[in-house]
Amino acid sequence: MNSHLKRVTRSDVAKEAGTSVAVVSYVINGGPRPVAEATRQRVLAAIKKIGYRPNNIAKALVSGTTQSYGLILPDISNPFLSSVAYALQQEAFKHGQVLLPGDSGDNRTREKELINNLLNRQIDGLLYTSVDRHPYIDLIQASGTPCVMLDWVNADLNVSAIRVNERLAAFKVTQHLIQHGYRDIAIICGPRIMLNTQDRLSGWSDALEQANLTVREEWIFSTEYTRQGGYEATLRMLKGKRPRALFASNELQAFGCLRALAEHRLTVPDDIALVCFNATQQSLFNVPSLTAVRQPIDKMAQTAIEILRTWNGKAQEREFEFELQIGESCGCGLEQS
């Protein structure tokens, strides 16, 4: 191996500074013994000159902290989940922590592998959204690693969790369509086996039933939480009796819906009014802008990181108020945006 590729050690620093390895360690770790200022400056100058970098893995073994959190999300390419990851990363960095993200790709086997990988890295905490609200809590709790679920889970699991009430949010955004006077309201939802799909579907049907409107099974279009899913579901919808309004249960589905409607020369909201769930900045800048449920991502990120930082072993559940972001897609004018 060439000498310039050799890893620089504390012994090299000690030799350069003309002192002992122990003194170098005292300077790097800030103790436990005091070091004369002149000697400390020589050590720091030597570190800078020869490019020494502390071995953080070894340091972690001694200190019991790696200054890193793990993050597992089901699909980080989803703009909403990307915005969640960004907010968590920014908040973790404020407190000197590095965020190690993992994308399970909506696959439970991969999700478990990611958890094991992160736990093996001795992370200080885990931020976690399971593929379908059936998290591997036993695995995490057996490791003693603090964990915050970024979604609601069964209270019997005794795990910290943050969320918005998705059923209520779906109810409110569907109710907004009803308040416009729309009566024929369909839904594009996720896979019906998924618990978050069931929450959003229930909120939609709650709003219809409260307004004495018929919940029509043929106007429930289940698909993937993707643009392609929304596009294909809308094409299926257009083959039958056309609804006057539509609730897409995530933003990507709404974008796919808009594409399918445009191909059939149908406009939003004139021909079909549209609202969606989990808005990002993209909803605001879309034409038309989308009326949508918006979660307080920054506040949720701050709370999640704070729970990890102040971990005391007790499960904490925090529910946040959602916002109904009014756009043009429901029929509200620009002056109401």
UniProtKB/TrEMBL annotation:
On whether Nucleotide-binding is a keyword of this UniProt record, the answer is no
Its domain of life reads: Bacteria
A Pfam family that this protein carries is Peripla_BP_3
Q: What is its EC number?
A: 5.1.1.1
Among InterPro entries, the record links this protein to: HTH_LacI, LacI/GalR-like_sensor, Lambda_DNA-bd_dom_sf, Peripla_BP_I
Q: Which GO terms describe its molecular function?
A: alanine racemase activity; DNA-binding transcription factor activity; transcription cis-regulatory region binding
User: Carries keyword Cytoplasm?
Assistant: no
Which residue range or ranges hold the HTH lacI-type domain? 8-63
Which CDD domains does the annotation name?
HTH_LacI, PBP1_LacI_sugar_binding-like
Keyword annotations: DNA-binding, Isomerase, Transcription, Transcription regulation
Under the heading PANTHER family, the entry gives: HTH-TYPE TRANSCRIPTIONAL REGULATOR GALS, LACI-RELATED TRANSCRIPTIONAL REPRESSOR
This protein's name: Putative transcriptional repressor for ribose metabolism (GalR/LacI family)
